[in-house]
Structures are given as structure tokens and as C-alpha cells.
From TrEMBL:
Keywords: Hydrolase. The gene is rbn_1. GO terms for biological process: cAMP catabolic process. This is Ribonuclease BN. SUPFAM superfamilies: Metallo-hydrolase/oxidoreductase. One of its GO terms (molecular function) is 3'-tRNA processing endoribonuclease activity. It comes from Usitatibacter palustris.
Length: 254
């Protein structure tokens, strides 16, 4: 299993792209602005999209992706998410007002896109790759994902604040190699982080203390303009785990 970071920023500007991870050539974990950097032939290979939650920075490329490649495909793109997230996408995105409903185009019998509901704790296996929805704690219903090749695994927290369910999943993973966890705000924005249900360096350190193993830790969702400050604060608060900043273009092998 190869995982390439297409985007990992908490915003846009210059080379910054919002969250999207490409698994091999055919699976997306979230679909932020980084998806748009793929060539057309790369976009056409994407068969599955696992959505952590409904916020725009994680779903913004789904409408453009489906609209761009639908005529190139013989099978629908499958969008996986928990029921609450799918309801939001149906009501507020693919609703014929903001964007066409591609689950009804060209018709309901042979659509360009279909939804698949998953539940927290459920594992979807695709060609031997296991993708499991794990708990997240955010301002909207949300999950993270564990990606498991059978040899090693990676946990992606999604957007979350203090979250004991995440650590239960992390600590039960016997082959965990990488942890990708958000820290959106610096310590001076702790009140904003708390209100918006994100982590800051102080809360990240408290959360990492719940982890039993020693995977490599990478920080995602840093806000533009505050990445250097936030990483310095993480180095002080969570230096024991030696977290590193996730970067667009970075690749992992499981």
C-alpha cells in the first residue's frame, strides 16, 4: 500500500493544499484541494473516496472530480462515509442547487457516483487493503481512518479534539507504523481550537500521552502562517514523541 499526501494544510495560498491522501492510484482519503493537482488520467483512476467529515476543505474536490471524469469511466465512483456525513452531502452539496446530484446522472440505475454508508469500527476491504473508520470528535459528525496493508498500518485522525476513542483504536493496532494527527492552531489560539474542536500543541501533548506504542508521528492541518510557530510549540510540549510536519508530496509505504 502506497500513500501519497496530495494536501495537508488547514488552508490555501501559494503551494498550500487542503487535506487529501491518495492510496495507491484508486483510493482517496478525503478530497481537499490537493486532488486537483493530479493529471486527468490520474483522476480517472480514482474509484473510491473515504470522507472523514463534511467540511469543505475535505470534500471540495469531489464535485469537480466526478464531473471531470464521469465520461471516462464505466463504473461509478463510490463515496464512503458515516450516515450523518452522507446526509449532509445529499442535502447541501449534491442537491441540484449547489451541484448536480451525480447519483441520479445519467440515471438512478447507472449513476456516475454512489454512496456507501459505513459505521465507526467498520472495515472496508479493497483488494486486500483494509480501511477502518475510527472515532473522531469534531463540530460535525466525523471519523478518522486506519489504513492497514496487513504488514503495517497508518492512522489518520481526521479533524478532532480530545478523543479517547481514537486512542483505543491506536492502542489496539498491533502493526501501527505511522500516526497522522491534526494540530490546527498554536497555543495562543487555544480558545479557538477548543471552540472549533481542533487540537493545539498543549492538548496534542496530553492526547499523545494516551498512546502506548511508538509510531512515527506526523502533524497535519496546520493553519497557514502559523505552521512554524505551531511546530515549535509542539516540539516543546510533545518533544518526547518527536512529531514532524506532514508535507504535500510525502509518501508512505505500508
Amino acid at each position: 500500500m502506497r500513500i501519497r499526501v496530495l494536501g495537508c494544510s488547514g488552508g490555501i495560498g501559494g503551494s498550500l493544499r487542503t487535506t487529501a491522501l491518495l492510496v495507491d492510484d484508486d483510493v482517496l482519503i478525503d478530497a481537499g484541494t490537493g486532488v486537483g493537482d493530479l493529471p486527468l488520467e490520474g483522476l480517472a483512476k480514482i474509484d473510491h473516496i473515504f470522507v472523514s467529515h463534511s467540511h469543505l476543505d475535505h470534500v471540495t474536490s469531489i464535485p469537480f472530480l466526478v464531473d471531470t471524469v464521469c465520461w471516462m469511466r464505466r463504473t461509478p465512483i463510490v463515496v464512503y462515509a458515516i450516515a450523518e456525513t452522507l446526509d449532509i452531502l445529499r442535502s447541501h452539496l449534491f442537491n441540484w442547487k449547489l451541484w448536480p446530484d451525480f447519483t441520479q446522472i445519467p440515471d438512478a440505475e447507472k449513476p456516475f457516483m454512489i454512496y456507501r454508508e459505513i459505521k465507526v469500527g467498520e472495515t472496508v476491504e479493497i483488494d486486500g487493503r483494509r480501511i477502518t473508520a475510527i472515532p473522531a470528535n469534531h463540530t460535525v459528525p466525523a471519523v478518522g481512518y486506519m489504513l492497514d496493508s496487513g504488514k503495517a498500518s497508518l492512522v489518520y485522525s481526521g479533524d478532532t479534539t480530545v478523543n479517547d476513542g481514537l486512542w483505543k483504536a491506536v492502542n489496539e493496532a498491533k502493526n501501527l507504523k505511522y500516526l497522522v494527527i491534526e494540530t490546527a492552531f498554536s497555543n495562543k489560539e487555544q480558545d479557538v481550537a477548543t471552540a472549533s474542536k481542533h487540537l493545539c500543541p498543549m492538548t496534542l501533548a496530553s492526547e499523545l500521552a494516551k498512546m502506548h506504542g511508538h509510531p512515527e508521528v506526523f502533524i497535519t492541518h496546520l493553519k497557514p502562517g502559523e505552521g512554524a510557530l505551531t511546530m515549535r510549540e509542539i516540539g516543546v510540549a510533545a518533544g518526547r514523541w518527536r512529531p514532524r510536519m506532514l508535507e504535500t508530496g510525502q509518501e508512505f509505504s505500508l
